[in-house]
Amino acid sequence: MEQLLKLANQRPNFFTDILNSINDAIYITDKNGVTLWVNHISEVITQVPREKLIGRNVRDLEKERVFSPSVTRLAAEANSNVSTVQEVKDGRKFIATGHLVKDEKGEVIAIVAHCRDITEVVKTSSKLRDTEELLEKYSQELRKLKIPLHTTDLPPKKELILHPSTEDLIGKIAKVDTTALITGETGTGKSATAERIHLLSKRYNAPFIQINCASMPEQLLESELFGYKKGAFTGAHTSGKQGLIQAAEGGTLFLDEIGELPTHLQAKLLHFLQTKTYLPIGAREYVQANVRIIAATNRNLEKMTEETSFRSDLYYRLHILAINLPPLRERKEVIEDLAFYFLDTYNQKYNVNKRMTSRALDIFQSYHWPGNIRELENLMERLVILCDQTINEKDLPQKMMENQYMPDYMKQADQHNSMPELLESIERNMILEALKKEKSTRKAAQQLGVTQSLLMRRVRKYAIDI
Ligand SMILES: Nc1ncnc2c1ncn2[C@@H]1O[C@H](COP(=O)(O)OP(=O)(O)OP(=O)(O)O)[C@@H](O)[C@H]1O
Ligand SMILES: [Mg+2]
């Protein structure tokens, strides 16, 4: 220190020379933000000569966009040291820190701002982000090409027939690691979609494991999912057993029919989703796992949460990324694509070249497909095997012909097995149709031939949104 002071005494500009030799901006103001002194780099960065800065208040310079925001002002307002990213007129960015200089009493006597150019760093990291995005996009495209696309024991398929918006959503869901929930009636492609998300994701090389939560009793399901330690219960393997979460390490675990998960396992699953750790049966310590969960259900989970048969906190957690696959009867426009797609697939599988008349195709389009894509696919396989060269309307199952001229709500009849259920379904659908057509509930009631108050009672009973 003594030597330093000696040098300073010998050279009056010693300290300012030091500050000028630094490659970062040093900008000194009084406690009110009036510029007292700036080093050479400050002039270069702001593109304003020193004499035009000295004496000016940083607030005015900020208004003139010489720099924004002014870190000096921020530090003064916060009454403490502050760091921020500051931009100057030509768009260059700086990491700026405002330091308060205090006297022995703790009063601020000056503020020193120090700025370092990070334009290059920002450029490189945003370039890096762009490149990463592009890379991810290409690898997803590549994975799409490689996907064998089979979820059943069918031969490999070319691709899933998806609405562009669904395809887009699946791509986005595949990009991230968040839990996803797929909803839809039976046969709408929930399992196929889950597998596609996995195959398009970065986890594609790791296992995709699925389990149907409705397929076994509670205790068995718990040990299947979480595994158990040796000697956990009588009848347990002496060596213990790894659970499916462990088996899916690095990959995806697909929980089908999640609505059937018993309450106590719902709590265990929620814990896993929140902490990525779980307790195998009989174990004392939590085990970590890196597994993405995708769940599916054909039940109305939201309604189940109201009836308290499904935990609402788990529902919200699962619902972050939700994808609903509409039933075929609501997507009549894809029936033709699917029909030809499966015709082609099974023609290839059985090495034949069957065709379909346009009349038969019309009936395909007007049928309501209670079993959705699975039903259409299975029927097409049967037709390709059994029909002569051309698939005619007479080759189609009787029920498809019978249903043809029925209104849509009647077509759903065979999904219901009891008379009250069927009648309710018809009633609900008639109300829906009438409400769609008529602007007011009064007119809808008139059309249905009931009083408005009866209509309103039914609207509440069936939880219809009006
Ligand atoms: N978008 C699609 N394009 C082509 N084939 C599809 C599509 N979606 C589903 N499939 C096929 O339809 C059949 C039924 O699909 P999947 O098993 O995924 O339905 P699901 O909704 O899981 O049914 P469930 O509720 O009964 O489990 C499968 O053979 C599947 O490959
Ligand atoms: Mg399924």
TrEMBL record:
Pfam families: AAA_lid_14, HTH_50, PAS_4, Sigma54_activat. CDD domains: AAA (cd00009), PAS (cd00130). GO terms for molecular function: ATP binding; DNA binding. Residues 11-61 form the PAS domain. GO terms for biological process: regulation of DNA-templated transcription. Residues 78-130 form the PAC domain. The keyword ATP-binding applies. Residues 168-385 form the Sigma-54 factor interaction domain. This is HTH-type transcriptional regulatory protein TyrR. Keywords: Aromatic hydrocarbons catabolism, ATP-binding, DNA-binding, Nucleotide-binding, Transcription, Transcription regulation. PANTHER family: C4-DICARBOXYLATE TRANSPORT TRANSCRIPTIONAL REGULATORY PROTEIN DCTD (PTHR32071:SF57), TRANSCRIPTIONAL REGULATORY PROTEIN (PTHR32071). Gene3D superfamilies: 1.10.8.60, Homeodomain-like, P-loop containing nucleotide triphosphate hydrolases, PAS domain. SMART domains: AAA (SM00382), PAS (SM00091).
